[in-house]
């Protein structure tokens, strides 16, 4: 039986989008995101990050910088009880400045390549999964891949048309019941835990 996943865009959903975040010292979890991810994991969801990282193609940070940040993010989330089943990224951009990464590809959202690869490698049921993103390109990638539900962390009416639901944050989406659990979702921990 295939597993269900919550696909998460990184910048703007998991961490605050400060623009081309490529170093740990610039990485800041969105308030409530880690607890929401822990609760989703405890409810049986596989957590999968799918992220465009054009900062690599643009020369703002290297693939090694990205990998170091990702390793730290994964360790922090695992320690908080929210282990990631996978992290998939696209380093490409057609207008990049680093030749090795300057191209059109099938993995840069809105193309569905990252989601399809994750589903194949992790044995995921796309129809039973949810994507939480913050841009129309996230919703378009999810639709193209056949993801069953799309939630956008957005305020704009234009974004709402592409999604099944919108919310101010991942934590708010979870609190509002916009992500349907595979089994009941544990209550939020108090700030003292």
Spatial arrangement of strands, main beta sheet: 3-2-1-4-5-6
Distance linking N and C termini: 34 Å
- Determine the mean pLDDT: 92
Helicity level, as a percent range? 25-40%
Q: How many structural domains can be distinguished in the coordinates?
A: 1
CATH superfamily: HAD superfamily/HAD-like
CATH class: Alpha Beta
CATH fold-type name: Rossmann fold
Rg from Cα: 16 Å
Q: What is the number of helices?
A: 7
Specify the CATH architecture.
3-Layer(aba) Sandwich
Category by helix and strand content: alpha/beta
Q: Tell me the number of strands.
A: 6
User: Could you state the order of secondary-structure elements as H and E?
Assistant: EHEHHEHEHEHEH
Q: What's the shape? A: globular
Which residues sit in consecutive blocks of at least 5 with pLDDT less than 50? none
Q: Assess the beta-strand content as a share of residues.
A: 5-15%
How would you sum up the major sheet?
Answer: 6 strands, parallel
Describe the structure.
The chain has 193 residues and is an alpha/beta fold. The chain has one domain: HAD superfamily/HAD-like (Rossmann fold, 3-Layer(aba) Sandwich). The chain has helices at residues 33-42, 54-57, 63-79, 113-122, 136-145, 157-160, 170-175; strands at residues 5-8, 46-52, 86-90, 130-133, 149-153, 165-167.
């Amino acid at each position: 039986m295939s597993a269900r996943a919550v696909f998460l865009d990184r910048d703007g959903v998991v961490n605050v989008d400060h623009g081309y975040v490529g170093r740990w010292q610039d990485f800041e979890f969105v308030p409530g995101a880690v607890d929401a991810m822990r609760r989703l994991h405890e409810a049986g969801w596989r957590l999968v990050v799918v992220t465009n990282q054009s900062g690599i193609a643009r020369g703002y940070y290297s693939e090694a910088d990205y990998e170091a940040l990702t390793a730290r993010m994964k360790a922090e989330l695992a320690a908080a009880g929210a282990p990631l089943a996978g992290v998939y990224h696209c380093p490409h951009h057609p207008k990049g400045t680093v030749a090795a990464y300057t191209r059109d590809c099938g993995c840069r959202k809105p193309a569905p390549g990252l989601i399809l690869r994750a589903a194949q490698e992790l044995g995921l049921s796309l129809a039973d999964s949810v994507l939480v993103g913050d841009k129309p390109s996230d919703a378009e990638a999810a639709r193209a891949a056949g993801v069953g539900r799309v939630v956008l962390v957005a305020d704009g009416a234009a974004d709402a048309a592409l999604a099944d639901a919108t919310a101010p944050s991942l934590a708010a989406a979870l609190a509002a019941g916009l992500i349907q659990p595979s089994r009941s979702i544990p209550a939020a921990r108090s700030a003292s835990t």
